[in-house]
Specification:
By secondary structure, this protein is an alpha+beta fold. It folds into two domains: 3-137, OB fold (Dihydrolipoamide Acetyltransferase, E2P) (Beta Barrel); 162-308 and 369-478, 2-Layer Sandwich (BirA Bifunctional Protein, domain 2). The protein has 16 helices and 20 strands. The longest helix has 23 residues, at 162-184. The relative contact order is 0.10.
Length: 488
Amino acid sequence: MSQEITDLRQIRIEKLRRLQEKGKDPFRIEKFKRTHQSQQIIEQYDELEGQTVSIAGRVMTKRMMGKASFIHIQDMLGRIQVYVRQDVIGEEDFEDFKTIDIGDILGITGEVFLTRTGEKSVKAEQVTLLTKSLFTLPEKFHGLTDPELRYRQRYVDLIMNPEVRDTFLKRTRIIKGIRRYLDDLGYLEVETPILQTVAGGAAARPFLTHHNTLDLDMQLRIANELFLKRLTVGGFDKVYEMGKMFRNEGISMRHNPEFTSIELYAAYQDYEDMMDTLEGLVEYLCLDLYGQTTITYQDREIDFKRPWRRVSMNDLVVEKTGINFFDMPLEEGIAVAKKELALDVEPYMTEGHLVNLAFEEYCEKDLVQPTFVLHHPVEISPLAKRNPEDPRITNRFETFVNTWEIANAFSELNDPIDQRGRFEDQVKAGEGGDEESHPMDEDFLQAIEVGLPPTGGMGIGVDRLIMILTGASSIRDILFFPTMRPID
């Protein structure tokens, strides 16, 4: 902490002590009854003009003019100007008011009026210091701009940067909208375990932990898929869960080890129904936020109006590379993948893996408009139902927007014999070096032996969807407290 900051903090502490000596300790105040927030007064001015209101918030500007002052109070919804006069609040209280600093939290009771310059304001009749801030906020013209500091001091970021607060208000609105849309479709919101003995349902590395009382190694969930399917077995036809998932992987502009995802399952539906559900949901969210289906993300215009493009993964690979790995022997395909496409082929890989490798390398980067990529190879889809016309592929899709995957869905595999075989193949792949292979889950196998009805399931990356809908360039911009390396 610099000497200047230390000195300014000490000055504020001395102001606080003088108030406390006068019996005006703000920290002894437990509550303040507000009648309105800033934006309500501005929007409802015609109704509120001349009426007495009570507001509360943080002082963001202060301009002294002899025996009067103008300040701006900021609350959760915005800012409003307050006019403070000595002859209205009294000489003693005005002397105390002079010691108010930027960042202090005040309660104001006064009359709604319009200034001579036409600004909707409150003329203070009573000013109450509710909290004395000992922290000097960043200089108003430059604010808090250092990204690293913004993420570490999100509380200051929210105070100084209104657009950040607006992004998080939109985040809440989007999450509420997702729940409302699914609830209206008859889905039941449920909760499933975060601590698990087998972290399955996705291809990812889990965080490991240990339960002392049971002397049991456990893992944080990487997905909630297998528990939600258990509930479908139990008779809940439509379920969803939105919550935190945890993957022990890298941190980047689009990845945080702790992130928000939603998974939903509908009995007697298939992957095509899931496409319809996702199209409808995102279109609904766009209309709710902006009144239109077209948004601008960075410099790209993206249109979420239904219907979205639907194309198979292998067709995209053939379109981009001219190579169809399904039409050649594996050894030839491996040679082609290495020589012509410069792909890193692992020993355990088969034709389906080669298709997926080529897709990731050559196709994803062009998927800007909403696109359903269909029919993933069975090797990379251990929980999806095979396509009845071509058993090498599955009735699965991933949805791409702005080149990012935002959703993954399929007609759920409900054949317990096939499911056991695929788990066994995944175990072998893990033994061969695939660190993200799916583990064996005997309890889940028992559940689907009881009988899983034909089911469509889908997982949506809520954080990535929020990034696109709010224009955020980094996942850290839409997480209140992203994962950060501790300061030494």
